[in-house]
UniProtKB/TrEMBL annotation:
GO terms for biological process: endonucleolytic cleavage in 5'-ETS of tricistronic rRNA transcript (SSU-rRNA, 5.8S rRNA, LSU-rRNA); endonucleolytic cleavage in ITS1 to separate SSU-rRNA from 5.8S rRNA and LSU-rRNA from tricistronic rRNA transcript (SSU-rRNA, 5.8S rRNA, LSU-rRNA); endonucleolytic cleavage to generate mature 5'-end of SSU-rRNA from (SSU-rRNA, 5.8S rRNA, LSU-rRNA); ribosomal small subunit export from nucleus. One of its GO terms (cellular component) is preribosome, small subunit precursor. Residues 216-261, 520-546, 730-796 are annotated as: Disordered. Pumilio repeats lie at residues 106-147. Residues 730-757 have a biased composition (Basic and acidic residues). SUPFAM superfamilies: ARM repeat. One of its GO terms (molecular function) is RNA binding. InterPro entries: ARM-like (IPR011989), ARM-type_fold (IPR016024), NOP9 (IPR040000), Pumilio_RNA-bd_rpt (IPR001313). The lineage of its organism: Eukaryota, Sar, Stramenopiles, Ochrophyta, Bacillariophyta. Keywords: Repeat. Residues 234-246, 762-772 have a biased composition (Basic residues). The keyword Transferase does not apply. It comes from Pseudo-nitzschia multistriata. This is Pumilio domain-containing protein NOP9.
Length: 805
């Protein structure tokens, strides 16, 4: 790195004192500029006259001070970037000035010219360079497009700079950074600070940015980080030694750890100042410099994939190359107008939180065959193009899957690769062999690769093959035992079975066998089981073993509810187990009875109330019941049982931040008006308590509580109209289908009687179907026949069920 390496001189102490004495606050500066822009565009005229209107007519003082300070210190920016306190001041100036002025961004970048390599490897300067690059590439969302440095009321210093021809354009400044850093790419890739600068540079060239995944990391220092320039340098006060907190469940990716490059969201820049298409060739040349010299044998690149700094850099490289493609940009970029609607933004935020609690990954684009991303991936895996057999790919895949950093690289490839390459990845990774998958699942790192594989399956045929192999892992007890922390495999397997509606019977049987293995109940009868296998076959042995365990008894164990010893009202749930139960509730309705019994009947009433108050429990379990097929008899009965089990707690839940969602959903899900009336009657007894907070008022509006208190007959009429409106499509589908097949009323009456069939008769039919079907019968195979039978219900029978008169 000695060639072309220049180090700036030390900054003047007077300059640092001057910058630290400036009364600049980032939040206040952005608020001032926002008010000024709204006033300048005419949005603030009219009746909205406030106390700040007199000041809003003038140019923002904080922005003017930042412009003036930038002009004063532009010759010492590179020196200040290497100082602990000077770097903080420069980043504050950049965060105030750069979003609203391209001229300020060009001055900041040009002032560091010739020192990019030094700053990229400096612990303070690297943060300054990242901040300037991020803020310079795109304008602020409130920016009208005009450079505020050229405003007639702005300080004249930067206005004069903008008219000079000596100041390079923004495109030329970014191009100069690439030219200076590219020759040192392999060295910077393994440097702690340099790799972060290269990540930011790749994102700028691709027109994207990295954001922390949904849910955040729970830190309370976010504002402090922003206002000190993006990073805290040095110790502001001595740290006290604290006891290490227990690590989060390894089967759940929702811990408080810092976000990894493979899990961060990639978003397109909304107001880019330079067209990313102009950097296409530059991005490709930088990626070639980072990948090094092409070689068919494993070497330095594979070592970089397992490096703590170079591994995340390769992840960002593959993702940026994928997102930078024109097709991906057209499909996944969000129009700028969508962010202006506050209601839509609120809805998107709520959906994002709900998806985060369910562990739903964001949909990402896939690169095309022959694209730069495809070439980079094949270089990482030592893929031999056009060869019948891969000599090194299997070993590389197996090695990456067991390394903490390399596994993230492999998971990123699984998410982004095209369908054809994904088949080859499963083949050469040997993921479809039972013994190999068991080895992957038992490994403390490779088991996360198995979870990603279950999430990224591309077709129904692949899903069926993968699930049959995964069932053996589940039946061994590895994915059931909470001490082994592998329940994430069960979670992803149930999610896959629910998505494609296959292998649901087999997976539930594997769950029961897994609980047998975990509890050790099969150890005493192992010899008898083997003898039975020799005489009657393996299937008979497994059916006999699985029948000794009730699925409803397994559900509370999967939920894993534990109460806090210090606070009895706080509970802890098994995240992967709750998500597994949620997806089991999305199986064929005939398979959900035991799951529903395990939740409603297997848990105490106070536990159900605590689950309704918990964000994870409410989303996974309560929503799993109430958002399911509530028109079917199984779920309709479960909704009624849930209301009865939690009677007396609905008023307190209606005023809870999380619990009120369950109350509103239960009101909509209850099939009969009498059941809705009993729920609302309990809410009416709460009196003014519901009107005392926003959650309670929303329940009052959704459940028509005030209307019930005033006139119950009128309330029944209004609820009946709501039911008839919401069920119109459902009733029309039922009433129009029987006519071509039968003309009499016997069929309809028979269908109505079938709705009220005893539970014992249903269980007998279920056992009869199991005896007829093979072990691997698909979970959704009975749905068409059942749909044809239930479609013969008459309108009168439906109205009787709904109790609408």
């Amino acid at each position: 790195m000695d060639e072309g390496y220049h180090r700036p001189r030390r900054p003047a102490s007077e300059t640092i004192a001057y910058l630290r004495g400036l009364p600049l606050d980032i939040d206040s500066a952005h608020q001032e500029v926002a008010r000024f822009l709204s006033k300048d565009s005419g949005a603030g005229t009219g009746a909205d006259v406030g106390e700040h209107d007199a000041d809003d007519d003038f140019f923002p003082q904080s922005l003017a001070a930042a412009f003036s300070a930038l002009e004063e210190v532009k010759g010492e920016i590179a020196s200040l970037a290497g100082d602990e306190y000077g770097s903080q001041s420069i980043e504050i100036l950049a965060q105030i000035a750069a979003p609203y002025s391209e001229i300020a961004s060009r001055i900041l970048l040009n002032a560091c010219r010739g020192y990019y390599l030094h700053l990229a490897t400096h612990r303070y300067g690297s943060h300054v360079l990242q901040t300037i690059l991020q803020l310079s590439s795109s304008a602020h969302s409130d920016d009208t497009g005009a450079d505020l440095a050229m405003h007639e009321e702005a300080p004249p210093s930067l206005r004069d700079e903008g008219t000079e021809q000596s100041l390079p354009s923004l495109h030329d400044c970014i191009q100069a950074i690439v030219e200076e850093l590219s020759p040192h790419g392999p060295d910077l890739a393994v440097h702690l600070c340099g790799s972060h600068v290269l990540r930011t540079l790749l994102c700028v060239l691709g027109g994207v940015s990295l954001e922390a995944c949904r849910g955040g990391n729970g830190s309370n220092n976010n504002k402090r980080f922003d206002q000190t320039g993006g990073a805290i340098r040095g110790r502001l006060k001595p740290k006290k030694k604290k006891k290490k907190k227990p690590r989060a469940d390894a089967s759940s990716p929702t811990g408080d750890a810092a976000p990894h490059a493979g899990t961060m969201d990639v978003v397109y820049q909304t107001n880019p100042r330079v067209d990313p298409g102009l950097f296409a060739s530059t991005l490709e040349s930088l990626s070639s410099a980072l990948l090094g010299t092409p070689s068919e044998d494993p070497g330095e690149l594979q070592q970089h994939a397992c490096h703590s700094s170079a591994g995340p850099l390769l992840i960002v490289l593959v993702r940026v190359l994928t997102y930078a493609a024109d097709g991906a940009r057209e499909e996944f970029s969000v129009p700028q107008g969508n962010g202006s609607d506050p209601e839509a933004a609120k809805k998107n935020a709520n959906n994002s939180i709900a998806d985060f609690r369910m562990g739903i990954a964001k949909t990402e684009p896939r690169y095309a065959e022959g694209s730069p991303a495809d070439k980079a991936v094949k270089r990482i895996l030592c893929w031999q193009e056009g060869a019948d057999q891969q000599e090194y790919a299997s070993d590389v895949i197996y090695g990456l899957s067991g390394e903490p950093r390399g596994s993230h690289v492999l998971e990123t490839i699984m998410r982004l690769c095209p369908d054809g390459f994904y088949d080859s990845l499963l083949k050469y990774g040997d993921f479809l062999t039972a013994q190999t998958l068991q080895d992957y699942a038992e490994h403390p790192v490779s088991n996360f690769v198995v979870q990603t594989m279950l999430t990224t399956v591309r077709s129904k045929e692949q899903a069926e093959t993968v699930l049959k192999v995964a069932e053996k892992v589940v039946s061994s007890g590895l994915a059931i035992d909470p001490a082994k922390k592998r329940r994430g495999i069960l979670w992803r397997a149930t999610e896959l079975a629910a998505r494609y509606r296959i292998e649901q019977d087999g997976l539930l049987k594997a769950v029961r066998l897994g609980f047998l293995s975990w509890k050790g109940e099969s150890s005493g009868g192992s010899n008898d089981a083997e003898a039975t296998a020799e005489e009657g076959g393996k299937k008979k042995k497994q059916r006999k073993k699985a029948s000794s365990v009730e699925l409803k008894d397994c559900i509370p164990e999967l939920i894993g509810l534990r109460r806090n010893p210090g606070d009895d009202q706080r509970i802890t749930l098994d995240a992967a187990g709750c998500r597994s139960v949620h997806h089991m509730l999305r199986f064929s309705p005939r398979l959900c009875q035991d799951v529903l019994d395990g939740i409603i009947g297997g848990l105490q009433a106070e536990d159900l109330v605590s689950i309704a108050r918990d964000g994870l429990g409410s989303r996974c379990l309560m929503d799993g019941i109430l958002d399911g097929p509530v028109k079917t008899p199984i779920f309709a009965g479960a909704c009624k049982d849930l209301r009865e089990r939690m009677a007396g707690s609905w008023t307190s839940l209606a005023t809870d931040r999380v619990g009120h969602h369950t109350v509103k959903k239960l009101f909509r899900a209850l099939p009969k008006i009498d059941d809705k009336a009993r729920l609302v009657e309990e809410l009416v007894a709460g009196g003014n308590r519901l009107h005392g907070n926003p959650m309670g008022r929303s329940v009052v509006d959704s459940c028509l509580v005030d209307a019930y208190a005033e006139n119950r007959k009128e309330w029944r009429h209004r609820v009946g109209k709501l039911l008839s409106t919401s069920e119109e499509k459902f009733l029309s589908e039922i009433t129009r289908q029987p006519e071509p097949k039968t003309t009499g009323g016997e069929k309809a009456d028979g269908g109505g009687g079938r709705e009220d069939a005893p539970v014992a008769a249903k269980a007998k039919r279920k056992r009869r179907r199991k005896r007829k079907n093979a072990e691997g019968t698909e979970g959704g195979g009975e749905e068409p026949r059942k749909a044809a039978k239930t479609s013969t219900i008459s309108t009168e029978a439906i109205m009787n069920i709904m109790n609408v008169h």
